[in-house]
Design a protein that fits this description.
Helices cover about 30% and strands about 25% of the residues. It has seven helices and eleven strands. α3 runs parallel beside α5. The radius of gyration is 18 Å and the shape is globular.
Length: about 240
């Protein structure tokens, strides 16, 4: 994939964002930050600190208890249910539970996003085959999700998420079920996508990856967000 120049624009903004579930202690408290297109962030923090909830706010599976989340210049609170699927078409989403469609084989799962966007079936299959080969699943094209290991399912989910070259990629522990070599290979795929202009936010526990790849780290801790880069910390 060849790198391109992209005009830097604001991609995501949190304004005084707080989130709590019921009467529980708040997950987040008054977060204020933004990041621009073409950036790459690791999202880190202890288990249960709210990394998945943070990502869900960005693709509006959750809404904040207080404050405003803006993505692609749009206040997410103003999106109607009918608009939401079209809004998410500009995103690539990698979930911890993969969310593959059990009645479609692996090739069909990965093709689906392109087919929805109107890509011809033959061309979509060529792109999907290339990506599945990249993630080491070229010999599993016609198998169904139930026949795959958790790690294989995760690689299918990643291929499906990146095939449309989305404006924004949100990945929740995308390397959690693969070995170290596969994890690094997937990181190179995310890097190439980022070079083409995709903004990447990748939640991870894998310190080897965070330490190896020179991207800023957003660390969630006690309801606050800290930007960590080169050992320095800045609180949001």
């Amino acid at each position: 994939m060849a790198s391109q120049r992209w005009q830097s624009v604001e991609m995501v903004r949190f304004e005084n964002v707080s989130l709590r579930y019921g009467e529980s202690y708040p997950v987040f408290r008054h977060l204020n930050f933004s990041f621009t297109s073409g950036s790459f962030y690791f999202l880190t923090g202890a288990s249960g600190v709210g990394k998945t909830s943070f990502l869900k706010l960005i693709y509006r599976e959750l809404q904040p208890t207080e404050g405003r989340v803006t993505v692609f210049g749009r206040d997410l609170a103003t999106l109607s249910p009918a608009e939401l699927p079209y809004f998410r078409q500009r995103m690539g989403l990698v979930f911890q539970d993969c969310r593959l469609i059990d009645t479609l084989n692996i090739l069909e799962n990965v093709c689906l996003s392109l087919r929805i966007l109107g890509t011809q079936a033959k061309r979509a299959k060529i792109y999907a085959h290339e990506l599945l080969e990249w993630v080491g699943l070229a010999t599993h094209l016609y198998e169904y999700p139930h026949a795959l290991s958790d790690g294989q399912k995760q690689r299918v989910a990643i291929a499906r998420a990146v095939i449309t070259r989305p404006l924004l990629l949100l990945a929740d522990e995308p390397t959690g079920n693969v070995d170290e070599n596969a994890a690094f290979k997937l990181m190179y795929l995310f890097e190439e996508l980022n070079k083409m202009g995709t903004t990447v936010v990748l939640a991870t526990h894998n310190r080897s990856i965070v330490n190896e790849f020179a991207y800023p780290e957003l660390m969630l801790e006690r309801g606050h967000l800290q930007l960590m880069s080169g050992g320095d910390r800045s609180a949001f």
